[in-house]
Records
---
Amino acid sequence: MTRMKYYSCAIACWALLAVVGRATPAKIEGLEQTQEIDDVDDRDPRLPRTCELSTDINGTSFQNPGYPSATSIPTGACRHKVYPVNDNICQIRLDLKDFILAQPNAEGVCAADFMQISGAMTKIPQICGVNSGQHLYLDVTPDFGSVTINVDTSAPGAKWSISVAQIECNSQYRAPAGCLQYFTNTYGTIKSFNYDATNFSPYTPPTATTQLANQAYGVCIKPQSGFCSVAYTKTSVVANDYTFSMTGDASIFPPGGPLPGYAGSADCTTDYVMIPGGTLMDTNYAVISADRYCGTNFPSKVESSIQPFALYVVTDDTETNYADTALLDGPNVGFSIDYRMQSC
Ligand SMILES: *[C@@H]1O[C@H](CO)[C@@H](O)[C@H](O)[C@H]1NC(C)=O
């Protein structure tokens, strides 16, 4: 009973805040829709939530109003607040089933549309663009209060459907702390956010920045008995295509020609993937081991046996190099890297 009261109060206060904080007709219209659905929620907890709604039920979906069409409220914040289902929740997993927001600007900054998450301990980058199929883990403490997912849009066309699962502290599905993404198979594909941008072609030089700025997160791979290391390769098996670019200007290199990749902390200072203890299986590189990888190409193979198995993604806040304009980045697409665990 206390729990129900808490829930209703939470909803009421949230709704009240929404009314007080917003005066535009579009928002009030959204709110009416919200209250209607909220009543229905009591009868069917599995119904999706749209803007300015909360949940304390496991596995709800947060969708744009009008989903699967583009959002019917194309400007402003659309927030979904997640309350713990019980007092033993340590993580929240978001599955971006469908996620299409506006592309970032030329600097890779999510200036038009973005998703921002608050209330969790994990440092979560703002993301935008096309991210259907991606997932995120957020660490929370069992007394976390609430986590708010805010999809803020400023242009028509955005749509999303995000399923929100709550993971108990003793669950076998819990990811190691601090991992924004967690892969549990012996092989798989790790892609940077917005890698699946629609204006991207592997055989022609990129024309727009789709790599997102301001990223700093870890991608972890679950250890398995009998496996002692992880090998990382570019997902595309075509040498010198345009499927990996983090720094430099891939657009100035003609198709078919060599594309320069870099390894090491001297060359990779702004945007890079980090594979701690990486050993390079590629004689085109001057070094045989490196933690950082950038440029417009990736070694034919990088292997690491350092545990926990993890790859980190780092990008700075711009594609512009203020310190050295000769090093300005061009349009970069980010990366798609396959990992495969190697037996001992
Ligand atoms: C929530 O649902 C997920 C997926 O079905 C499940 O793994 C998890 O244990 C559930 N969490 C709770 C607290 O029941």
---
Amino acid sequence: MFLQSLALIAYSCFLITFPPTVSATNDVTIEPHIPGLTRSILHSSSSGEDYDFTGPTTLQWGWDMQTITRAAQRGEKWLYQPFTWLIYQVGSDMKDLLESDIVFNMSCQYELSTKITQGDRFQVELSIKEPYIAPIGNTTPDSMAHGGYIICPEGICQNDKCKDWKVPKWDRSYIELWSPKQTATPMPTPMPADETSVAQFSSAPISQSSQSS
Ligand SMILES: *[C@@H]1O[C@H](CO)[C@@H](O)[C@H](O)[C@H]1NC(C)=O
């Protein structure tokens, strides 16, 4: 009984000291930075838990090598993990979330190649403006497209505010053609945006990845 309590205390401390991480296994990770005014909700079918995080923050979704190797042996080229990405209107109180403040409800997924190497980390920045996703850190456009990334191929505007706005959705063919030049795409319509994260998004991350490729 005493040992059990001790283990429980140790386990709780372990949980408390961890940064916002949405999985326990991290042999290979996809690490998206999500901007302010957005929220990621991932329902894990294995643990039954909902992992719900509000931006701006960096998330980390991981896989263990055994899962990846087994999928590769079954002939699967990719692993998928769906999540919902909610985008709130400018001025929303992100500490007191209101359903009526949601503008877009996006259906997204992590996609990880089964040809990765243990220790690979795919770091990306998500944005509600084009180019929507960009590699950051040591991740290059090429390693992202062949290793790990996020797509949001479906999504709806569920508020009068966004009825004339472009839904921020993209699919795998967009990732295959991804180029830093997409940052030059002018915004056709006003979008709710966290200006700080948009600024980071279009300067440092893009120039880093084009230098290293
Ligand atoms: C977002 O859409 C999904 C279906 O795609 C739905 O299950 C979910 O309830 C929606 N969330 C909100 C907050 O509207």
